[in-house]
Structures are given as structure tokens and as C-alpha cells.
Design brief:
Oligomer: single chain
Largest sheet: 7 strands, mixed
Strand content: 15-25%
Distance between the termini: 57 Å
Number of helices: 33
Shape: elongated
Structural class: alpha+beta
Length: 832
């Protein structure tokens, strides 16, 4: 079972590590993932061995708060984030208002020396010199108190976690600023003692070493950094927020002939919903009345509106552009496409990529190590004969410059922005591991039907030794019980011909071969060439040659062949271009299909794939994936069918086409909402961009701490005179985490130029409408005639639509097109 929990009190990566470790210790917990950005935790556990109360208690024992998320989690989380930012802004303003006079009071004499600023008379009368040392120091303390109060959470949280044995970044801030404050109070007492005993030397010693301004500056700069970080982090969830905002709050139902407005959560399966122009579609359903154009760009990323009519499916979150229509609710609540997408994006954003393991290990021990370094550096400088003030400021500088947040944020912010950006482009990535693995892919297996081709099969030709109508009756009767995609093409043809089908007895499906059954007492077989050979049916090679590149379905009785049906599929417009792009990236592209080698090689040649794996049984696709993996390849498999599921699971990255079966989508690591291979290219490019960003973040986070901590500890003091002021350390720490988040947000600008190039590709096409084409031989003649023209790159001929589509890369000559077709014995009606 999986459950989400809201976590309270996390401020840095050390916090998330402590929470994760605390929950992982529980018996029955299988997996834990803590999202520092969204402050929630996803736990997979055995509900027979552990329950939510146990999980919540383990979090509370670690010093944090936890609660099970409810249905209003998104609104609550968003409201909580907004309130947190508002609270930080208020704290920051108050801190700055008191820090400015505190800094001026503590350093007015320096401002006079550095910038020549005049010293007001009242400053001289009340704060200057040894005689005014108490008013000088006590006034600074009073100005510091409001800063301490508004930022008290650092102390409450920091010391609470410290006493629980799980110190975090707040602990470092509390120790650093607390030490400076306590030393300042100690200095006030020493000044009082000096004045009481007329020991001016003691007064002067402590008068200029109060450090209240350091404590105030540390807290103010940390709050500034936290505020900027929170503002930046709030933008990382923008993709999810956009998706959430696509769902309307209310919808209009038709009940008992009346229009009733209800909340979307109250819609039930089967309800009839009225959709008005400009309205967002509330749930998944099917059109029952009317028609319209639907803007699906927010879900699929495709900018061109899709025309919908009765019987067509509509998706929640899409926009009705024009026209009224009625629809029946099919999937509601958490089952809608939009809800599932939001869930996938949230879970992917909260998951951890393997690249983050090193940062997680470092974060777990980072804060205790820093505290140890701070104490050690203070003691060492005292042993080396330096003053207590020198040693103390060194220790404080170590505490406040160290930044576990930069390490902790390096990976999750990039993952969250990356998966959100992928969703905006119609690519749903289920986990951070899949996102990382995509950039390592160096071999990709593409299933042919429905992936490279449209998957919309149609009968192109029929060869039979008997009456054609009788042959279609027999073949159709056999295929009506089959679930194979090829059977749909035959049944569509039979429906067009209005042929009645017969009862089939003893029907049997032989996977990877075909079907058999008895019609009118006679046993018939239907399937591929292997199935015919196994039943000792002789096939005339001349018939096979006539079929050219079509997929052939053979039908026979127990003695001989009775006919062949040639079925063809259309190659997707973007398949060839996508293959080119994959090959440009250095990826080996393979096409895998159960079709015979002639069909496979023909399709492969058209799209530019040289590595063809044909005549593969469904259960053997997984074996082909294994073979490539055994050669050391990182393999991605792209498919859409039930028989692709084993290959999708066994590949390093399984990619399912969005219009594929539910089983294929469930088995995949990545889902392409749009039905185009170009999104595979986009996904790989995005993965590379995210991993580059993570590596950059980790590099700077490590370098910052590796360089900053030794400088703060005074390692280079004797060699170069480098000693870090705690105030500068606090400023550097604040900026480091802000820089990491800002760098990750650059991924929001990720773009591909595929749309522009695709448009150019689409523009370089012509549609030629032809009279006189009757059969597959006519189609072959037109293909051959147009393919012989030097400017033609690709030809697709449709008998059904009586047209040919040519793709070209240079100036096209319409006169040569007309002549070539007329020489082949056909008439050109129009060229577009």
C-alpha cells in the first residue's frame, strides 16, 4: 500500500534524511521518499505489519510533525506555501528595520573612517567612549531582541532537532547566532564589572567585541536567503498547479431533462454533462450529442484543436473551443486522465534519482560534522594562542557558512522542474530513475504497428481461388473472435461489403501463428505463413511477390489455400524524422515486428531504419531486449500493445505510446500522451538537460562547502591572512541555496526546435488526387511512377482516399508529377 503524508518542520536536506531514516527503520516499510520541496512523504508499506499511526509516531519521535494527506492536500499545500512566504517577508522586513540602526550603532565609527560620514552629536554624547560603554552595548542588545524574536523558529527548531540527536541547518544557525548573542551578553557584564572597578582597559577590551550586529546580520541574511529560496521553490511546482487549474470547479448536468450545476467531485459515472463553448471538460467521457473542436494542448502539448463528434472520447482538463455538446461521464474523480497525470507528475517529482545518492549520504552526516569542525577549530585556535574572540568568531563562521541545503536541493528541484516540463510537453515520466536512465539510452527498439505506423490497418487486396464474397464470409467468421489488430481491418471490410458472418465451432487462437475453427463442419485455418507451413499448406511464391510490402493473412481449409488478404498500414508523418534525430544522437535504432521480412524491410527502408528484427513472436520481444542488454547496451523499448508489456518491463526504459493499451501504459516507465515518436527524442533531450543541471548543482554545492568551510575555519589564515567574518559567511550561505534553485529553474526554458522543423517537413509535402486506381496493382504502379522522380523522397498511396502523398526536399515540378502518373495509365484530378 502507498500513502502520502504531510511533513511539518523540515528546513533542509538533513531534515528529510532524518525523517526518511526514521520511517525506514519500521518493520513493514518497503520504500520511503521524502520531498523537501513540497514537504510531503510517500511511503510504501505492508499494512498488515505497520499502519499510518506507527509511521506518524516515528516521524514525531524524530522531532517533526506528520499527518495523512487528504483530498484537499493541494489547496492546503499551496495555501501553506503562500502563508509561509508571507510570514518570511514580514520577518524579513522587521529584521531589516532593526538591523539597519543596529549596524549603524555598532559600526558608526567605521563608517566615519571609511566613508567620511559625520558623527551626529547625540551619538557622541550617548554612545561614544568608555564612559558610554553600557548604553552603547545595551542599546545594541535591545535592537537585537526584535530580530531574535521574529526569527525565534530557528532556535526552537534548531535546538529541538539538536536535542533529538538529529541536528539540521537551523541547529547551525541557532548555534552560530546564539553563541554571538551569549558572548555579547557576557561582554555587557564584563563592561559593567570594568566600569564598577574603574578598569578602563577591561571596558575597552569588550566594548568593541560585542558581536550583537553579527548575530542580527546572520539571522537577517539567513531569512533573506530563505525568503528568496521559498519564492524560487514555489515556482518549481508551477507545472502541477497549471494542471490542477485545468479542472473546473463546477459542471452542468442534465438530470430529468433539467440543467443542474454541481461540483465536479459530485459527478458520477454515466452522468450526462452539458459542455458550453470555452468551458473546460470536467471528467473523461464520450460525446453523446453535438460536435466541437477541442483544445487538447494542455494535456498533449499539441497546439492544433481536434475535431470531435458523437462517439469520440474527450479528456478532462481540455477546452471546448466552440459548439455545445453533451457527453457521458466515463471516468470521474481520481480515475480521470488529468488526475492520473497530476499523480504521476507528483510522484515522479518526489522520487529520487540514483545520481542523488552521494548527496543524500553526505547530507546525513553533514550537520554533525560541521558542528564538530566548528568546535575543533575554536579549540585549536585557542591552543595556538589566539584570543577567545578570534577563536569564537572562527567557530561561528564555520557554523553559518556551511550549507546542507545546497546539497539537498541540487537534485530534487531539477527533478521536479524536469518532470513538470516533460508533462507540459505531453511526456509523463513515472520516476526520477527513469528520467535519469533516459539520457544513458544508446539503443532503442521500436515496435512497428502503432508506433512507427498509425496502427490503422485496412484491406488493400484480396487473392482467392473461390467466390470473393464466400471467401470473406469464411475469413471474417474466423477473425471475428480474434483480438489481433489485423482482424479489425478484415471485419471493417466485411462491414463495408455488408456480408453476413457464420457460427464458428471449436474456435482456437494459436499465439504468434493464427486461428482455427469449424464453419459448416469444415475446419479452416487463418494466420501467417508459419501457421500455413505447420498445417502443410502449399503457398505459391508468385502470389507473395504480388503483395509487395503488405502484411499477408493466409486462409485455408485442411487441404489447400483458399485465399490471401493483403493488409497495409500508414507510416506516421513524424516517424522518419524522429528516427533521423535519434540516429544523430548516436543511438542505435531497431525496428521489431511480427511481420515477415519483406514487409518489415519495406517499412524500415521508408523510415531509414537498417536494423530490422522481423517475424518475432510476441513472447520473444523480451528476448531481443535481453540480447541487446547482454551486449552492454542501455535499451529503451517503445510499444503500445498488450504483447509489448514484457519487453517494456525488461528494458532499461519502457516507453508506451499514449493511445496504447492500459497494460502497456501500466508496464511503461514513460508515457507519450501524443501519438508521435518525436516525443521520444524530446524526452531524451530533456533527460540530458536535467542531468547536466543536477551535475552542475552538485558540483557547485560540493565546491562551495569544500572551499567555504576551510576558509571559515582559518586554514589559510597563516598562509594568506584569510579569515572569514561570520556576517559574510551568512550571506554566502544564503546565496548558495538560492543559486542552486535558480539554476534548476532554468530548465523551465527548455525547448526543442522540433515543431519548427516538423512544420518545414510537413510543408514539403504534396497531396495528389488520382482517378483510375482500383486495386493493389494500381497502387504499386503509382508508387513506382512517383518514386522514380528525382525530387521525391517518400511516397504513400491510399486506395481508399484515391490519393498519393509525396515528401520532397527540393523544388518540385507539378508537370513531371502529372506526366509520371499519366504515363502509368492514371488521371491526376488535383494537386495540393
Amino acid at each position: 500500500m502507498k500513502e502520502k503524508f504531510d511533513i511539518l518542520g523540515m528546513t533542509c536536506s538533513s531534515c528529510s534524511s532524518h525523517v526518511e531514516r526514521a520511517v525506514r527503520k519500521l518493520s513493514g516499510v518497503k520504500n520511503v521518499s521524502v520531498n523537501l520541496l513540497s514537504n510531503y512523504m510517500l511511503v510504501e508499506y505492508d499494512e498488515k505489519r505497520v499502519n499510518t499511526k506507527d509511521i506518524i509516531k516515528s516521524v514525531e519521535d524524530a522531532g517533526y510533525g506528520a499527518s495523512v494527506q487528504n483530498d484537499k492536500r493541494v489547496k492546503k499545500a499551496k495555501k501553506s506555501v503562500e502563508e509561509n512566504i508571507k510570514s518570511m517577508k514580514k520577518r524579513l522586513i522587521i529584521s531589516i528595520c532593526f538591523l539597519i540602526p543596529l549596524m549603524y550603532l555598532a559600526m558608526y565609527h567605521m563608517f566615519h573612517e571609511w566613508f567620511g560620514l559625520p558623527i551626529p552629536q547625540f551619538m557622541t554624547n550617548f554612545f561614544h567612549g568608555s564612559k558610554n560603554a553600557i548604553t552603547f552595548s545595551l542599546s545594541q542588545f535591545l535592537l537585537l531582541l526584535p530580530i531574535l524574536y521574529v526569527n525565534r523558529n530557528y532556535f526552537i527548531s534548531g535546538f529541538k532537532k539538536l536535542f533529538h540527536g538529529s541536528p539540521n541547518m537551523d541547529s547551525l544557525i541557532a548555534l552560530g547566532s546564539g553563541a554571538a548573542t551569549i558572548y555579547g551578553i557576557f561582554a555587557i557584564y564584563m563592561i559593567g564589572i570594568g566600569l564598577g572597578n574603574h578598569n578602563i582597559e577591561l571596558v575597552e577590551k569588550y566594548r568593541m567585541d560585542i558581536y550583537f550586529e553579527s548575530a542580527g546580520t546572520i539571522l537577517t541574511l539567513i531569512t533573506l536567503g530563505k525568503y528568496l529560496e521559498a519564492k524560487s521553490k514555489s515556482k518549481t511546482n508551477s507545472a502541477i498547479e497549471k494542471l490542477i487549474n485545468l479542472a473546473p470547479k463546477n459542471a452542468i448536468l442534465i438530470r430529468n431533462g433539467k440543467e443542474i450545476e454541481v461540483e465536479v467531485k459530485d459527478i458520477l459515472v454515466g452522468d450526462i454533462i452539458l459542455i458550453k463553448p470555452g468551458s473546460n471538460i470536467p471528467v473523461d467521457g464520450v460525446l453523446t450529442e453535438g460536435s466541437s473542436s477541442i483544445d487538447e494542448s494542455a494535456i498533449t502539448g499539441e497546439s492544433i484543436p481536434v475535431d470531435k463528434s458523437v462517439g469520440d472520447n474527450v479528456i478532462s482538463g481540455t477546452i471546448n473551443q466552440n459548439g455545445y455538446f453533451k457527453m457521458k461521464a466515463v471516468r470521474v474523480g481520481d480515475d480521470t486522465t488529468l488526475s492520473q497525470i497530476i499523480k504521476l507528475v507528483e510522484e515522479a517529482g518526489s522520487s529520487k534519482a540514483p545520481i542523488s545518492k552521494l548527496a543524500d549520504k553526505v547530507s546525513a552526516i553533514f550537520v554533525p560534522a560541521v558542528i564538530l569542525i566548528a568546535i575543533s577549530s575554536t579549540i585549536i585556535w585557542l591552543l595556538l594562542g589566539q584570543s577567545f574572540e578570534f577563536a569564537l568568531t572562527t567557530g561561528i563562521a564555520v557554523l553559518v557558512i556551511s550549507c546542507p541545503c545546497a546539497l539537498g536541493l541540487a537534485t530534487p528541484v531539477a527533478i521536479m522542474v524536469g518532470t513538470g516540463k516533460a508533462a507540459e510537453n505531453g511526456i509523463l515520466i513515472k520516476s526520477a530513475e527513469s528520467l535519469e536512465m533516459l539520457h544513458q539510452v544508446d539503443a532503442i527498439l521500436l515496435d512497428k504497428t502503432g508506433t512507427i505506423t498509425e496502427g490503422k490497418l485496412r484491406v488493400e487486396d484480396i487473392f482467392t481461388t473461390m467466390d470473393q464474397e464466400e471467401f470473406l464470409r469464411i475469413s471474417g467468421s474466423l477473425e471475428k473472435n480474434s483480438e489481433h489488430p489485423l482482424s479489425n481491418a478484415i471485419l471493417k471490410k466485411i462491414k463495408e461489403e455488408k456480408i453476413s458472418l457464420s457460427q464458428v465451432d471449436d474456435f482456437e487462437v494459436i499465439p504468434g501463428r493464427g486461428v482455427k475453427g469449424k464453419i459448416d463442419g469444415i475446419c479452416y485455418y487463418g494466420g501467417n505463413i508459419k501457421w500455413m507451413n505447420e498445417n502443410n499448406i502449399t503457398i505459391d511464391d508468385s502470389i507473395m511477390r504480388k503483395s509487395n510490402s503488405n502484411t499477408l493473412l493466409y486462409f485455408s481449409n485442411e487441404k489447400s489455400l483458399i485465399g490471401i488478404i493483403a493488409v497495409s498500414d500508414t507510416i506516421k508523418d513524424t516517424s522518419k524524422y524522429a528516427v533521423e534525430k535519434l540516429m544523430e544522437m548516436g543511438i542505435d535504432v531497431y525496428m521489431i515486428t511480427g511481420d515477415n521480412s519483406a514487409v518489415a524491410n519495406s517499412i524500415g527502408k521508408k523510415v531509414g531504419i537498417k536494423n530490422i528484427i522481423s517475424e518475432v513472436l510476441p513472447q520473444n520481444k523480451e528476448e531481443e531486449v535481453r540480447k541487446l542488454q547482454n551486449k552492454g547496451k542501455k535499451v529503451a523499448f517503445v510499444g503500445d500493445g498488450i504483447n509489448d508489456s514484457p519487453a517494456l518491463v525488461s528494458s532499461d526504459v519502457g516507453i508506451a505510446i499514449g493511445n496504447g493499451t492500459d497494460i502497456a501504459i501500466e508496464s511503461a516507465d514513460v508515457i507519450l500522451v501524443k501519438n508521435t515518436l518525436l516525443d521520444v527524442v524530446t524526452g531524451i533531450h530533456l533527460s540530458k538537460a536535467v542531468i547536466r543541471n543536477i551535475k552542475m548543482n552538485l558540483f557547485w554545492a560540493f565546491i562551495y562547502n569544500i572551499i567555504g568551510i576551510p576558509i571559515a575555519a582559518g586554514v589559510f589564515y597563516f598562509s594568506f591572512g584569510l579569515k572569514l567574518n561570520p556576517m559574510i559567511g551568512a550571506a554566502a550561505m544564503s546565496l548558495s541555496s538560492v543559486c542552486v534553485v535558480t539554476n534548476a529553474l532554468r530548465l523551465k526554458r527548455f525547448k526543442t526546435n522540433f515543431k519548427e522543423e516538423k512544420n518545414v517537413m510537413m510543408e514539403n509535402q504534396k497531396e495528389i488526387y488520382i482517378d483510375g486506381m482500383q486495386c493493389n496493382h494500381c497502387k504499386m504502379s503509382v508508387e513506382k511512377a512517383l518514386g522514380s522522380l528525382e525530387f521525391v523522397e517518400r511516397v504513400e498511396v491510399s486506395l481508399e482516399d484515391k490519393k498519393a502523398i509525396i515528401s520532397y526536399k527540393k523544388d518540385v515540378d507539378n508537370e513531371k508529377i502529372v506526366k509520371a502518373i499519366e504515363d502509368a495509365g492514371f488521371v491526376v484530378k488535383d494537386i495540393k
